[in-house]
Amino acid sequence: MTGASTEVGRGKGDLTRRRILDAAAAEIARHGPAGASLGAIAAAAELQTGSIYFHFASKQRLVEAVLEEGISASLRRLDEMAVPTGTPAQRLRAGVHAHLRALAELSDYAAVVLAPQFAARQPPGFRALRREYLRRWTELIADAQADGTLAAGPEPGEVRDLLIGALNAAGLAGQDPARTADAVFALLRLPPC
Amino acid sequence: MTGASTEVGRGKGDLTRRRILDAAAAEIARHGPAGASLGAIAAAAELQTGSIYFHFASKQRLVEAVLEEGISASLRRLDEMAVPTGTPAQRLRAGVHAHLRALAELSDYAAVVLAPQFAARQPPGFRALRREYLRRWTELIADAQADGTLAAGPEPGEVRDLLIGALNAAGLAGQDPARTADAVFALLRLPPC
DNA sequence: CCTCGAATCTGTTTCTCGTTAGATTCTAAC
DNA sequence: GTTAGAATCTAACGAGAAACAGATTCGAGG
């Protein structure tokens, strides 16, 4: 249930900072940002409550850091897998796999990012990253529509929301990524690989 | 942004109870169950904080009542629209329309029900209603698969989660129900009506 | 008009949580 | 070994919220 940890930290403090972030992501995923108490987070990170303030200026900042960590890690995975080569259908498949992998590997962070309460009141850096993530997806969808891989009627943005919504539901439910991907492709009647 | 109100209440107290429920649903949808304060709920319902306790034994009970109201209203709509007549494709279409209508009409209640934090720790009555709702959908999906309307590969339960996830994402984003339904049918390449 | 119960209000109590400040310990460089 | 800074702990404060207990008002029936 913990998230992933990229970027090797250097000092001892960096490791603690990561432990706090992981604990906060788990706590927020379970109880929401308001319901997650610093006491519980500190306990999970094996720390005293006050010590959190050496690493984060406030609870608000901690929550924001968790959000940014989640979306930026997702974006990183999308960049790695859905590179602009190959047919639209291939790139769409790669994008689906990347998103599902991100959900599986980042579990708690992903859950936090996807919580509906964060649709509004996003911190500044988070909004930009999220917009960028959605923009990539819109491109993938539009290309697939132009290609005939996906039905051309609906707006690309609409299709993107539907698709990501479907992937999120399966991902948060803990479904196996590969299995879910196959199901999606079958339903959309994409040509087999 | 308020929810719907079915079932005409009799006395004055019933109306107040409904006002509290609506206010609670809105507040919970915005700030999560932990972040929603009785003070804010009471203010929105034009009441003093303490007066809520005449209608609900505790904050926990109030939250549970909002949950049950949301899921039972959704189930009611599904019952009305997706009756067991017609072809599997027709019933599937009806189900999609019912779900989207429920999301649009119940907005705050639906948002509360769909919040990921409620996946666990559900109140007793809520679990049963939710199970029933999913069971209906599994039937619709299985019939559509047997019919060839939907791809037969993936498990019905998997398909159900994907489909409902997609509908929820569009519904909570405030998309027009009819428009969303058309997009879904086009993507799944369902035969036109 | 009076009465009684339902409904609401006011004030109080208790508890949790975020935040802060100062003391304390750990770690590495000199 | 000493020292300086990083990292953590301890203890408290203050705000806000849930919960509770009477006191008060409202509204229909006799």
Which tags fit this structure?
elongated; homodimer; disordered N terminus; DNA-binding; transcription (chains A, B); 70% helix; Tetracycline Repressor, domain 2; 9 helices; DNA-binding (chains A, B); 0% strand; TetR family transcriptional regulator (chains A, B); 193 residues; mainly alpha; transcription regulation (chains A, B)
Question: Would you write up a description of this structure?
Answer:
- The structure is a homodimer of 193-residue chains.
- Chain A is 70% helix and 0% strand.
- Chain A is elongated and about 55 Å long.
- In chain A, helix 5 packs across helix 6.
- Chain A has 193 residues and is mainly α.
- Chain A has one domain: Orthogonal Bundle (Tetracycline Repressor, domain 2), CATH 1.10.357.
- In chain A, 44% of the residues are buried.
- Chain A binds a DNA duplex (30 and 30 nucleotides) through helix 1 and helix 3.
First-to-last CA distance of chain A? 32 Å
Model regions low in confidence, pLDDT < 50 over at least 5 residues of chain A: 1-9
The largest contact between protein chains, plus residue counts on each side, is: A-B, 43 and 43 residues
Shape of chain A: elongated
The structure class of chain A reads mainly alpha
What's the level 1 CATH class of chain A? Mainly Alpha
Q: What sequence of helices (H) and strands (E) makes up the elements of chain A? A: HHHHHHHHH
Please work out how many helical segments of chain A DSSP would assign: 9
Write the CATH fold name of chain A.
Answer: Tetracycline Repressor, domain 2
The fraction of residues in strands of chain A falls at: under 5%
CATH architecture tag of chain A: Orthogonal Bundle
DNA-binding region (chains A, B): 37-56
Protein name (chains A, B): TetR family transcriptional regulator
Organism (chains A, B): Actinomycetospora aeridis
Pfam family, one (chains A, B): TetR_N
